[in-house]
Each structure stands twice: as structure tokens, then as C-alpha cells.
Design goal:
The protein is built from nine helices and ten strands. It is α/β, with parallel strands linked by helices and 264 residues long. The protein binds 2-amino-2-deoxy-6-O-phosphono-alpha-D-glucopyranose. 2-amino-2-deoxy-6-O-phosphono-alpha-D-glucopyranose binds next to helix 2.
């Protein structure tokens, strides 16, 4: 795992988008794993800008989202499919047939989960997986006690997750109780992981995820097992990290990051 600290949430999102753009330019057929949530909105804004102003081309890439609420269809404004359409897909030249999210209204949810895994495999696996982190430490909707080898499945949402998503749904009672999510094991198979966390409210969970012991109570800690995972945080989200100065030096001095140092 490597941790990159940027001064602001804007700079952190800009770096994430630049990493995605660099990988997409190097491999136009990139299989991109995508995430939802407020944190990701600024990443998608930058990607849309890059498409418009710098000809960033999405025409050959494919995407797989981490999760979807059970019971919500694409027309529902709270569905993650709707989120993706609004924040990214309709603004760039991606072929919608190559964009994938689990179908939260599938009549047979277990079959839907198996099919999702099969589709990821058919596309050759995920090259670059974008991840956020929930306040309970989940990646996707891998709530506490998610097995570190879990695959795509239906998960019951934890109280903290319901609380965190309450505002979006106009009250906790309206938040769906279950979601289909890629498993921790599914996520760990991506070739590169890229986690973004911003804001002081994520500082404590980021410190646990990055520097704490690996535990199924906090599924993000499983990323410590991944051979190539980059965690990008702003200073607020980094504030509880013991290795703050060390991580800062890595971005400032390692040759890999040179091309990204001049970003605002
Ligand atoms: C949801 C999503 C996660 C996301 C998390 C953080 O629970 N399933 O994938 O990482 O929210 O959201 P936010 O960026 O709004 O804090």
C-alpha cells in the first residue's frame, strides 16, 4: 500500500483523475472499476473536463461498478446506475453497453451476483479499481464481518451505513436495507487499487484502514493484502496517520510521482 497526501480534497480528486487518465491513455481498452458516493463526484467532474478539453477517450473502455441497492432500478434517482449516468456516463463517449452495475431488481439476486462475477471474468478482470471508504470502513458495501475472500453477493447494510446515506434518501427509513456488492475477494483481484478519502470525518477510519490490523470488521484493511494499492487522501483525512511525514515525502521524492507533482 502507498499513501499519497494532497493538500486539499480538490487536489486529491484531481490526482485520482490524472492517474485514471494516464492508465486509460496507456490502455484504451482499460477495464475500470467504479465507485459512487459524494467523494467520487469531484473525480468524475475532472474526468468529464478531461474528456471535453483534453480528448480523453472512453470509447473502448469498460466499467464495472462496485455495488447497487437491492430494489432500485436504473430510473430511480437514488440508484447507483442513475448516479453513474448523471455524473459520468452521459457526459463522456463511453459505450453504455460496456458499463456494468449489478441489477438491484433482478428476480434472482444470487444468480445476478454469479453473473456479475462471470462478466468481470469475461472482460479479463478489473485493471484499475476506484474505491471510496464508508465511515464504517467498508469498501463497496462490504460491511463489518465481510469475509476477506467474499465474492459478489447481497449484503445487509450496517446501521452506520444507513445513517451515512440517510440524507440522500430523505431519512434513514427510506434507505434500502440491502445491496449487491462485489466481495472483498473480488476487489482484491483487481490489478491496481485506487482509494480516495477526503475530509476530517474520514480521518479516523483511514488511519485504521491503512495502519491498523487487518480485520473483517473493517473491510478496507484487506487492501493491505493487495500488491498495488494507492490510497490518496487530503490533509484532513490524513490527519490521524502516524506515517504522515513519511507518506508526504514519498509523493515529493519518488520518481513515479514526478509527472503528477505540478497538479493543483
Ligand atoms: C457508499 C458506497 C461506497 C462509498 C461510500 C462513501 O457506502 N457504497 O462505495 O465508498 O458510500 O461515500 P461518500 O463518498 O459519500 O463518503
Amino acid at each position: 500500500m502507498e499513501v499519497i497526501i494532497r493538500p486539499t480534497d480538490h487536489a486529491a480528486a484531481e490526482l485520482i483523475a490524472q492517474i485514471i487518465a494516464t492508465e486509460l491513455r496507456a490502455n484504451p481498452h482499460l477495464v475500470l472499476g467504479l465507485a459512487t458516493g459524494r467523494t467520487m463526484e469531484s473525480v468524475y467532474r475532472v474526468l468529464v473536463r478531461m474528456h471535453r478539453k483534453e480528448d480523453l477517450d472512453f470509447s473502448l473502455c469498460s466499467t464495472f461498478n462496485l455495488d447497487e441497492y437491492v430494489g432500485l432500478g436504473p430510473g430511480d434517482p437514488h440508484s447507483f446506475r442513475h448516479y453513474m449516468n448523471e455524473h459520468l456516463f452521459r457526459h463522456v463517449n463511453i459505450d453504455r453497453r460496456n458499463t456494468h452495475l449489478p441489477d438491484g431488481r433482478a428476480p434472482d439476486l444470487d444468480a445476478e451476483c454469479r453473473n456479475y462475477e462471470a462478466a468481470i471474468a469475461r472482460f479479463g478482470g478489473i485493471d484499475l479499481q476506484l474505491l471510496g471508504i464508508g465511515q464504517a470502513g467498508h469498501i463497496g458495501f462490504n460491511e463489518p464481518l465481510s469475509a476477506l475472500r467474499s465474492r459478489t453477493r447481497v449484503k445487509s447494510l450496517a446501521p452506520l451505513t444507513l445513517e451515512q446515506n440517510a440524507a440522500t434518501f430523505g431519512g434513514e427509513a427510506n434507505v434500502p436495507r440491502r445491496a449487491i456488492t462485489m466481495g472483498v475477494g473480488t476487489i482484491l483481484e483487481c490489478r491496481r487499487g485506487l482509494l480516495l478519502a477526503t475530509g476530517a470525518e474520514k480521518a479516523e477510519i483511514v488511519a485504521k484502514a491503512v495502519e491498523g490490523p487487518i480485520t473483517s470488521m473493517i473491510s478496507a484493511t484487506a487492501l493491505q493484502l493487495h500488491g498495488r494499492c494507492t490510497v490518496v487522501v487530503d490533509e484532513a483525512a490524513a490527519s490521524r496517520l502516524e506515517g504522515f511525514e513519511y507518506y508526504r515525502r514519498i509523493f515529493a521524492t519518488e520518481p513515479e510521482w514526478e509527472q503528477f507533482r505540478n497538479l493543483q
